Amino acid sequence: MLTTPDLLAELNDRSREVFRRVVEGYLETGEPVGSRTLSRTLNEKVSAATIRNTMQDLEKLGILDSPHISAGRIPTQLGLRLFVDSLMEVDPVAPTDRARIRETVGEGATDVEGLMDRVGAALSLITHGASLVLTPKREAPVRHIEFVSLSPDRALVVLVYADGHVENRLFSPPLGQTPSSMREAGNYLNAHASGRTLSELRDAITADIDNDRQQLDSLASDLVAAGLALWDQPDSSDARLIVRGRANLIGPEAADLDRVRTLFDDLERKRDIAEFLELTEQGQGVRIFIGSENKLFSLSGSSLVVSPYMNADHRIVGAVGVIGPTRLNYGRIVPIVDYTAQLVGRILSGQSTGQGR
For this UniProt entry, which residues form the secretion signal (predicted)? Predict the structure, then answer.
């Protein structure tokens, strides 16, 4: 299959203009765009018959499709990718949109969960789509760790963070654990925990166990390793997925309702919500996934515009995005998502958001 640069090279000025007008018309109305409509709007005066021939050539390239024999054309998924990568004009974020985002999100927030709820509400409100927010993983230093035996094959690890948050996680401990080995494991971890976040503690303990297993007896060492394995599980993170604005995705046609139902079934079946974060880690900017390009939404045929946000250490800690049908107004939504992600990063880093970007 031709890549988007190859496809772009196949287009002359007229076919490129026809293709761009078809895509823009489809994204605006959701309807196929016909040759007569284009003949009235093209800068170059050409007949409807000439435009139809150009459309047929674009259809052979696989970037346009005809839903009905006598209807106009719509872009294919490949065509939308070509448009987004090469021909889309990105609008700056309108001052009114910036003001509404800033007003809804607020500034100087100390309640991170409340902040992320407001971010989701702002994106849904501004874009008239469904918003997606992946909240940061908890990065507060750990103050205390304790193992509690519940049964021979069930144990609880209690994590107390420096900010007062308490988290309990169930797991299956190695066989043969005793109250003594559990106390030793807890004492060992607490001796290393001071001032360290959970990820920092995990790295330090892993290195210590690998380098000097004599610090712990075998039972306690196995228990610590089991706890570390538990923390390494993606779905044991404190990340939370917030989705707002489902109703915005439902249009007048019954097919829209089926698509939205499939979309949210996909969301609810996915236990590893950190997949969204992984999608963004290949680059710092906005990423666009169209239809089946995003395996999470492949069945529903939806698009995802997503951007990561960073903490004060310039580490990616979460993501914000907009979900919608492939007929998204990409040129408007891309800069809105980018602006929102940067705003969230500045707020979380304790920086002044000012009045500009």
Answer: none
